[in-house]
UniProtKB/TrEMBL annotation:
Ranges that cross the membrane: 210-231, 252-271, 300-318, 385-409, 415-434, 446-464
Family matches, as Pfam families: TMTC_DUF1736, TPR_1, TPR_12, TPR_8
Subcellular location: Endoplasmic reticulum; Membrane
TPR repeat placement: 485-518, 519-552, 598-631, 635-668
Highest taxon, organism lineage: Eukaryota
Family annotation (InterPro entries): TMTC_DUF1736 (IPR013618), TMTC_O-mannosyltransferase (IPR052384), TPR-like_helical_dom_sf (IPR011990), TPR_rpt (IPR019734)
Name of encoding gene: TMTC2_2
Keywords of this entry: Endoplasmic reticulum, Membrane, Repeat, TPR repeat, Transferase, Transmembrane, Transmembrane helix
Entry annotated with the keyword Mitochondrion: no
Originating organism: Characodon lateralis
Name of the protein in its database record: dolichyl-phosphate-mannose--protein mannosyltransferase
Amino acid sequence: MFFSNFCFSLCSRAIKTNQDLLPETPWINIFYHDFWGTLLTHSGSHKSYRPLCTLSFRLNYAVGGLEPWGYHLVNVALHGAVTVLFTSLARLLLGGGLWSLLAGLLFASHPIHTEAVAGVVGRADEGAALFFLLSLLCYIHHCRLRGHAGSLRLAAWLLSSLACAACSMLWKELGVTVLAVSAMYDVCVFHRLKLRQIIMLLYKRKNNLLLLKVLLLAVWGVVLLACRFSWMGNKPPNFSNSDNPAADSPSLLARTLTFFYLPAVNFWLLLCPDMLSFDWSMDALPLIRSLTDLRTIQTVIFYLGLILLVWFGLWTSLTSRTKDTNGKSHHYINGRNGNSNGYSYQCNNHEHLSSSHTDINDISAQNGTNSHYGSRTSLPTTENVVAFSLGLLAFPFLPATNLFFYVGFVIAERVLYIPSMGFCLLVAVGLRSLYVRVQRRSSRRVLLFCSGVLVILFGMKTVLRNQDWQNEEMLYKSGIYVNPAKAWGNLGNVLKSQGKMDEAEQAYRNALYFRSNMADMLYNLGLLLQESNKFSEALHYYKLAIGSRPTLASAYLNTGIILMNQGRLDEAKRTFLTCADIPDENLKDPHAHKSSVTSCLYNLGKLLHEQGHQEEAISMFKEAIHKMPRQFAPQSLYNMMGEAYIRLNKLPEAEHWYRESLRAKPDHIPAHLTYGKLLAMT
C-alpha cells in the first residue's frame, strides 16, 4: 500500500549528498554528525542526532547504491514490524479479540503514516517507533513478572527496556518519551491508580517500589537527554522564520494562541486526515493574532475534550471501583462484564475468577499497594486503557509542541507516527465501550459495520495519498492548496529538470507571488533565466536573492560569472571577494556553502590569471583549496594552479599540480593537455 517511487530529491541532503553514506567515509563519523551529514557542533547543524537511521541508510547504500527500491523495501518492512508490535501491545490492553485487531488495522492503514513510510527520511520515525514499542513491551513484561520471577530475570527485562529506549532516541529524538509512557503504564495500568491515589502515594510514600521504578525511568531519561545535549555542543539549533513563523513572531499573544492551536490541528489530522501536505511551513497555517479568531473556538473545544478524557481516565472510576468493592454494582473487566471479546454477557468460571481477582486488586490499588503481582493475566479497565492511551498520544508529541524549545516545523505529519498509536487505542476502546453498552444485536452489528467502514476509508485514503507520492510532480501539485509558495517553488524545480523551461518559469513566479522574499526561489528563477541567456533579468533576481539572504553564496557566484562574461571585471572581482568572506555559521547546508565559496575563489583566481597577476591568482587558488569541502571536485582547480605556476616558470610546482589534477580525475582532458605541454617543454 505504501510502496512508491519516492521523489528522491526530498532526501538529497540526508542520502544523495550525505558523505556519511559513502564506504570511504569512516563509519564512526556517523556518531559525530547530524542527520544531514553536518558536524553536530557546527553552528549551522540541524542538531537532528539520528545515527542509527543514518547507519541504516549507509547499509542500504552498500547493498544497492542509490536505487530507491531498497530504501522503500526497508521502510515498508519497518512499518510492518511496527504494526505487529503495536497489535501485540493492543492485545495486552484490549484482549485478543476484535478490538485489538481493529486497533492494529487502524494503525496499519492510517493515511497520516504515508509520509513516514513512502518518504525515505521518514524511516527515522519508523525506527524510533520500533524500539519505542520494544522498550515498552519489555517494561510491561518486567511489570507482569514481578512476584513471579527472580531478581536477575526482572533486571534483565528492565535493562532491555532502558537499552531499547536509548536506541529509540538514537533513531529519533522523541524516542526518549517511551520512558514517560512506561511510567504511565506502571502507574495507571499495572497498579491502576487514579489521580487522588497518585497524590496520596507521593505524599505518604506507601509504595516505595513503584516510586523507585518511576524514579529510575526519570533518571535514565535525564541521563539520555543530558548526554545528547552535551554531544551536540550544548547549543539548540537555529531555524529560519519560514520554518516556524510563530516562533519568530514578536507578539506573545500570537505565539501563545498559535502554539495552543497546533495540537488541535494535529489531532484533527488524526481524526479526519482529509487534507494532507508534504510541507506545512511558511504561511500554510496563518498565525492566530487575536482572541476573536474563530480558530480559538476549535482550540477551546479540543482542550475541553482532552480534559474530559483525562477526567474519565484518571478520576471517574475511583467512585465506581468503591461501589464495586461494596457489592453495589457489577464489575466490568476491560469495559465489559467478564468477557474478553465483548460478545456475550455470559461468564464461565475462569471469567468469574478473573472478575473477583480484579476487585481485590482495585481495593489494593486504592491503598497504593502492589498486590497486582497476582493479577498479571487480568485485563485493565476501560478507564485504565483511556488514561494510558492519552499518555501514548501526548508524551511522544510533547517535543513537537514548542513547549520546551522551538522546533523547525509548523506541522510534520511524520511526527504523528508514534502518537497515532494512542489515537488508534482510543478509537478501539471507545468503540468497544459503545458495543458493550448497546443492548440490541442490530445496533451492535451497525457498530461493527461502522468500524469496518472506518478501516476501509482509512485504507482508501492511504492508497489515494500514496498516489501523490508516486513522483515529485504529483506530490508538489497535491500541496499547492495547503502551501502554495513551497509547492510551486518545488514544482518549478521538477519542471525545469524535465526541460519545461516556460512552465518552470511560471511556477517560480507563482511561488514568488505568494511569498516574494523567498531567497531560494529568487535564485532558482535567476538561474533559469541565466540558462536561457536572459542575463540582465537573471542579475536582477540574483540581487533580490542576495538582498533577501545576504549569505546565499551561490547567488554571488553566478552574479560574478555573469559580470565577468559581460566584461565588468572590477564588479566581478568585488562580488567574488564578498562571497569569499561570508562565514558558514548558522547555515542550513554548510557543505553547499563551502562549495560555492570555493567556486568563487576559483573563478577569481582564474580571472587574475587571465589578467597576468599570477601570484595573486595562486593565492586565491590556495585559499580555495583550504576552504574546499570534501565533496568538491578539485581537478579544475588543481589544473589552474599548475597553469599559474607554469606562467611563473616554476615547472616542478606546475607538474605537481597537474599530477594532482589527474589523480583527482584521471580522465580530466584539460589536465592531460596541459601536462602534455609541460612534458614537451621539459
